[in-house]
Give the backbone structure.
Amino acid sequence: MASSSGTKDVGPQRSMSRRMTKMASMVEAGDDNTTVDSETVPSSLASIAPILRVANEIEPENRRVAYLCRFHAFEKAHRMDPTSSGRGVRQFKTYLLHRLQKEEVETEHVLAKNDPREIQKYYQNFCEKNIREGQYTKKPEEIAKIYQIATVLYDVLKTVVPSSKVDHETQKYAKDVEEKKERNEHYNILPLYAVGVEPEIMKLPEIKAALRAIRNVEGLPSFLTSTEKERPVHDILEWLAVIFGFQKGNVANQREHLILLLANMDVRKKNPHGYEQLDDETIKELMHKIFKNYQSWCKYLHFDPILESPRDDSHRRQQAQLLYIGLYLLIWGEASNIRFMPECICFIFHHMAKEMHGFLFGNVQQVTGETLIIHPKGEEAFLKEVVTPLYEVLRKEASGNKDGKASHSSWRNYDDLNEYFWSGKSSKLKWPLDGKGDFFVNPDTAKPANKKDNQPVGKPKTNFVEVRTFWHLYRDFDRMWIFFILALQAMIIIAWHQRGSSNVLFDDVVYQSVSSIFVTAAFLNFLRAVLDIVLSFKAWRSLKSSQILRYLVKFIVAAFWLVVMPVTYSRSFQNPSGLLKFFNNLGADWQSHSLYYYCVAIYLIPNILAAFLFLFPFLRRSMERSDWRIIVMLMWWAQPKLYIGRGMHEDMFSLLKYTLFWITLLISKLAFSFYVEIMPLIEPTRTIMNLTVSSYDWHEFFPNVTHNIGVVIAIWTPIVLVYFMDTQIWYAIFATLVGGIYGAFSHLGEIRTLGMIRARFESVPSAFSERLVPYSKEETRRNLQDDTTERISIAKFSQMWNEFILSMRNEDLISHRERDLLLVPYSSGEVSVVQWPPFLLASKIPIALDMAKDYNEREDADLFKKIKTDDFMYFAIIECYETLRDILIALLVNDGEKKVIWRICREVERSIRNQRFLKEFRMSGLPLLSDKLDKFLNLLMEENEDDQSYRSHIINTFQDIIEIIIQDVMNNGHEVLKEVYIFQENNKKEENFQNINIELLLSRSWREKVVRLHLLLTVKESAINVPMNLEARRRLTFFANSLFMVMPRAPKVRNMLSFSILTPYYKEEVLYSTDELNKENEDGISIIFYLQKIYPDEWKNYEERISDSKFVSAGKDRAELDRQWVSYRAQTLSRTVRGMMYYREALELQCFLDFADDKAIFGGYRAIDKNQSDYRILKEQAQALADLKFTYVVSCQVYGMQKKSRDIRDQRCYANILNLMLTHASLRVAYIDEREETVNGKSEKIYYSVLVKGGDKLDEEIYRIKLPGNPKIGEGKPENQNHAIIFTRGEALQTIDMNQDNYFEEAFKMRNVLEEFLKTHHGQRRPTILGIREHIFTGSVSSLAWFMSNQETSFVTIGQRILANPLRVRFHYGHPDIFDRLFHLTRGGISKASRVINLSEDIFSGYNSTLRRGYVTHHEYIQVGKGRDVGMNQISLFEAKVANGNGEQTLSRDVYRLGRRFDFYRMLSFYFTTVGFYFSSMVTVLTVYVFLYGRLYMVLSGLERRILEDPSLRQSKALEEALATQSFFQLGLLLVLPMVMEIGLERGFRTAIGDFIIMQLQLASVFFTFQLGTKAHYYGRTILHGGAKYRATGRGFVVFHDKFADNYRMYSRSHFVKGLELLILLIVYEVYGHSYRNSSLYFFITFSMWFLVASWLFAPFIFNPSGFEWQKTVDDWTDWKRWMGNRGGIGISPDKSWESWWNEEQEHLKYTNMRGRILEIVLAFRFFIYQFGIVYQLKISHGSKNILVYGLSWFVMLIALLVLKMVSMGRRRFGTDFQLMSRILKALLFLGFVSVMIVLFVVCNLTVSDIFAALLAFMPTGWALILIAQACGPCLKRIGIWDSVMELSRAYEAIMGLIIFMPVVVLSWFPFVSEFQTRLLFNQAFSRGLQISMILAGKKDKAPSS
């Protein structure tokens, strides 16, 4: 046998070595799969994958050479990992070995007799055929693949053939391949080194100019290689790479990036023809965009920017500027996670640019005049020396967050580390980076010995500390709280003094009392100063001394005013008493009573200055942005000096708009609060305070408290909370009104029905031309003068309209017939009138025929006047006449017969001109003619294989038509025939009209004419319902309406802004599998069956489409087509990709319309002859420009893992993503490749960012960039976006989530939207984020989905409209906003990624953009589709995630800075539209608690009874109402107002009111009230304890029933526990206050609370499919019992065991701080009030108020707990081995219990009502003990009583579950309840034909779906 090193020329065959063969016995053989071996290579053997790919590629041609390639791969794998220690290596090698053993026997030589000759011969043939002959004829991508194969083949050849035996010709080919392979690699968009067929994109002059510019390396210092030879460089990026050691993949990526940027920007500035050089202004503009942040950073830190370039030499200046741009892009492209730190990148660039500047303009070069020689760095030098050290700091800090569980203050996030570079400390970092610098020192290594391990000692936070406390809300928005508190104080004082006098404000006493608000203001300002110090204390070590001094001075000044204000205020009273007397004595030496007002005047000076600057925003803006030291000193007091957040003030006009909005709102709110909330309580409060209560119903600890202060607090606290909360409701009202007005002025909803479309369709083409068709100024001027261009405009509109209609047909929204009715003819030049779509002209001809029948022998004028009153009827008649004439003439071959037709037509036209038409033609014959024409056109449309029979039918019908015209319609028909045939000699030899040109019908344009004419003649019903599909109607109306909205004029494609789309993907569905489609749930329902019922019309259209003989399936079988149909109706990646690819289709059509000549445009986009060279070039140009302008990158983070995974689902996802790439050539997939590589003898994980595209059958790698480590150290989604953003292109970037969709007609408007970036707003500001509205496409799935859809739609339309204008606080709320890409890539990217704090990563990019002086707008003339969660649990998870995110936002520095730096009114807008909404939701719930606990206090203490029954009171009812207060605010139903307004605006107010009523009938209020609880719970818990996390909601179809245990686990803590607590409160309030209270008033007051309780307890079951079906209920009970009884333990999931779930529910308490634990304990004490109050109400207490009664109740409680403990212990100890003992123990306990109860009943007068009352008293106490025990968990675990706490908790959970479950059981007994629930849940689906009752009953129709 031959070894692998070589063989003799005629030696034996190459075969397996003995050593390798032996190895097979050690391992198990793998499967022999020939298609996947190259794609499933283990990561540690990745380098052999190309060899295996080549083997698969050449196998069809030469199996022996393929075998040799695999053998070489096997040997290489064995050398790389001889011990098979890598993950999956052993299995892979075994599989390959078995395959080689099999192939060694089966393969034969083809070209020679032995392996060396075989492979050499094959190699030579391959190179000869593909390289020598094909290099000038093949496309660049084919050449790249050929060179890749040739390289691998030669590597294999070298192992088979000894070096001495390699042919000269082989070596020549190998040398040629080696020299050229680097320039013939797979490319992304630009094949820069193409030598074969030059792609059209490389012919573009802008590309050539950009290439020429970056390839200018003249005069740059050269390099010496290791052999002291000068190394050539080809462009400036390569030169930079050699200097600084950038990676090859990074250089290639940024080279293309820079070329495309320059080309796209340059072409807008000049004529695209005949230019060779880049414009200086282009490079200057790009410099400005890329370095604006860098220059601002340098200015802030007083550095000199390193951007110097020669001014005298334009050539050198361009070169230098491009070097700076290239350097920045290369740094950014390789910076990995550091891209989230823009100022860190500025720091890196600053030092590297300084280094480069030294090379370019150093003294040596200038003095000697010689070229500087530089020694190059290695390829990964920049990664190792710069990126990796910085990344390691990031990684170590991120590891300190302990997977998101550690306190934010214990570790530094991205923002902390980036803000280090805002300070002068960054200048102390040495360059090259020194690992010993302060920034790099790992805090873990310097931990003091006296610190415990669980107390991390980290470096200080930078500038801000994220502390978990609600005080952030006060600190961030202190001006708002101060305003509301002072206004409340002033209103209470005025109301208190207002006794019938309207001039109370002018009263001296009132005026003096109101002036006390400044004392309050002093206290509140002091509180703010204290919070500033306390909350930022952990950052003090990183603060500048000036900042610390500012905090301290602010504190001292606030403390000074806190003392001075009360003292001087007390001196302003003549005879002070109480606290005022104390303060008065402090200032006894001061006799002047006016001193207080002087102090107030001095105190208000800063506020007056702020108000002055507020009125002049440009002045404030300039001062804040200034970096002059003198102005910084002046501004020092007003704001801390920070790099961002300066000068965010709007222009005067915007300021006036939102100021007017808020002044009007605040006046309304304060007036309402004063007259409705405060005034009604004043008199009752006086009455209560004047009453004397001497006896109580319980033991009163403070019997001597005056003025019944407890009652006053209980009454006023809910009202005060409502006062602070109701601004949110007022905002909803005002936003609704203003948003509606803005929407109306924006022309929204002007076209909202098909009738409106038909009415305005004539103006649609002109609106289309005006907005969507680009014209130069000269063309516009010409158009105004030349009417003939109108036909071209209509033709252009028809191209776009038809593509729109065809896209809807391909999406199965319309049928073939509807398509034909909606299409406009492509070839429109042969008809003298405009050819409108048939749906506008439908029924016009039949109506005209009916009219004509009644006009026999009357005047023509009457008939034609009536016809011309309806334009569409007139157009239809003319078109039918001319089209019929053309068809008849075209069908005839004989010229004489054609003359007959012409003569008939001339007769018609002459009679019309002479107004004798009705006299010379008989109208009675027209119906017969119409019927015959119908038959004739049907024949023409048929496809008949029997040609002769088909021809004879046509001839016969044709002759019948002529006969009817001659004999029945024309009065002188025979005379016409005679005149024509008298000149023909052979007119009697054969029958007329027999020679027909039937081949004419093969023409597509003629067939379209026939179909259209048939429709015009035969469609008799009105087309009012075309299309029938609701989604198709919505799209038609929205598109038509958008053409009349204000939008920028469309530029030509060549001049438009280039853009990219980025979609992050993790492991969501790509395309449903056949198994998933047909998998039936427990009711026998499959997804495909479900969708067939929801979308019956679309399913019918789909079946019609695929059964059409013209349908091209592209090799897909029915199952594959079904998969696609379903997936395009779900929230899948394939749907998103299909939608986004409409952008490319639209661009290609727009290119055609821009560049095609009139003939091509009239001919039609789809009708052009692609074989003609001109049109082929036009098509290629269109594709080239589309490539230039549009890039789509899907960031499939785990694509590499899925490729190698053995999991079936992963493999399916990989195959589907690959299929998407193969289908869409311009789709790119970026992923993180994780490889195992041996470094210094150790196996390490190495990470790469990789970009791939679709090849022939597999993906082709384009770029590979090594990363410093695992890029996922923060939140997953932003990290996923960040790694892929380097592969995007263009000046704009649209972020699209993978639950989104797009539409062709909307994609057509993209270039208009992009023009918004070029519009300046109020001076020099241009938008940095363009907001786009969304259409929620999941609304039809169920009633819940409909509620969610309406809620989301109102937010993305009217909500964001008002945020953008006038409020100016719109941010980025997720996709599909469009970013100014260059602005954001230089400022930290399109999201933030710090763990947990940036959970809502999207909105932080909006915050960041605003803080960095960005400008966010919102545009509603374009929309993108979006899916939303459709099931109850999915929606709740989503709401929980958003509430978690808002909780974290509340703690963030971004919200703090925006809240502090916005002006007052913009700050109000910001608060109430972000975190304030969630805080208000929480306050709404808190108000219910406070109200009920206040009532509990009054009822159980007896105070309410004493007050209402006091004989001195006359107006008991008024007092009752005051005691009840207004509680209707809790419902918050006014928050649905924006939803109603938006529906009314866009679909009509009748529809809106109808929808609102239907929603209420479908219990929408229950749903929204339930979600209120979700928001409040998760928002509050996040701020108190943390625990925020990403919650995967799942985006599938919810057609299954959630088990009771699932619902209990999800909602127990957020809703059920709180609902039961409120239920007990309401019961106690009812029972103990009912005897003396007006019951109707009680019901009115507590109705909203009962509604809240019912919603929280039962909504999950109401909205649960089959929630009340008996069998399901029984199964749920069984499942619930099993879950409750199962023991927990390590590895037991929460859904399997109650114990595991219970432990998981307390997860947040494990990581909370001591403050959080104490607060939990304090809150738990509220449950003790039940026991304290109720035990004194028991009959057994005999009215005693002694404290011993309460003590005795605790004795009873302890006894009960001990008994429970004994039972539990007895069950555990005796239950198994000593069952008799266990039974005796139970019997004794039972007898003891009975005995005690008998004694209590007989001796102590215990009653049955006492027993129930005792349950109400003791149950909450037990729950309080559990909550306290959980908060003290670590202590109790050490004591050893944790198991007892767990068992008590289990008992409580069982009782709660039983209470909630019983009503469900009762309702399940009645079958009609289940039917009603089904109707309730799926009403929307019913209205569209869903047979849901059949579905949920499991009675699936077994008929085959096809």
